[in-house]
């Protein structure tokens, strides 16, 4: 679901959930855990990237529609936990929207 690439002191987190990197519960958890781990490991910045021409389609609506009330609650709880992680990040966070990798 994610590829982590180290670029010296910068961590690139590549979304890898074809075909459109839709955000399901598992991807949200993986993203948050990867952010937390990168910060703990001393990264100086984080770049989010996706596949060429496709960062993310956003919420995985079909996956959300089959969840019960508790499952929907879990999804949105995790979604907003990830948002809080991004907003409170102690290191700069950027999104690469033109490519799936950073070039030196």
How many helices? 3
Radius of gyration, in Å, reads 14 Å
Spatial order of strands in the largest sheet:
1-2-3-4
Structural class by secondary-structure content = alpha/beta
Mean pLDDT: 91
Give, in order, the helices and strands. EEHEHHE
Quaternary arrangement of the chains shown? single chain
Q: Beta-sheet strand percentage?
A: 15-25%
Judging from the principal axes of the Cα atoms, what is the shape?
Answer: globular
Helix content: 25-40%
Detail the poorly predicted runs: 100-104
How many β-strands, per DSSP?
A: 4
Largest sheet, if any? 4 strands, mixed
Terminal Cα span? 24 Å
List descriptors:
alpha/beta, 38% helix, 104 residues, globular, four-stranded mixed beta sheet
What can you see in these coordinates?
- The chain is α/β, with parallel strands linked by helices.
- Helices cover 38% and strands 20% of the residues.
- The chain contains three helices and four strands.
- A four-stranded mixed beta sheet has the order 1-2-3-4, covered by helices on one side.
- Helix 1 links the parallel strand 2 and strand 3.
- The radius of gyration is 14 Å and the shape is globular.
- The two termini are 24 Å apart.
- The relative contact order is 0.23.
- The C terminus is likely disordered.
């Amino acid at each position: 679901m994610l590829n982590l690439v180290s670029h010296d002191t910068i961590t690139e987190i590549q979304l890898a959930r074809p075909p459109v990197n839709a955000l399901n519960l598992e991807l949200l958890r993986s993203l948050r855990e990867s952010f937390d781990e990168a910060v703990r490991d001393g990264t100086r910045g984080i770049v989010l990237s996706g596949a060429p021409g496709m960062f993310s389609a956003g919420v995985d609506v079909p996956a959300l529609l089959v969840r019960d009330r508790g499952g929907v609650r879990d999804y949105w709880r995790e979604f907003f936990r990830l948002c809080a992680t991004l907003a409170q990040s102690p290191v700069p966070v950027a999104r690469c929207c033109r490519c799936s990798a950073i070039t030196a």
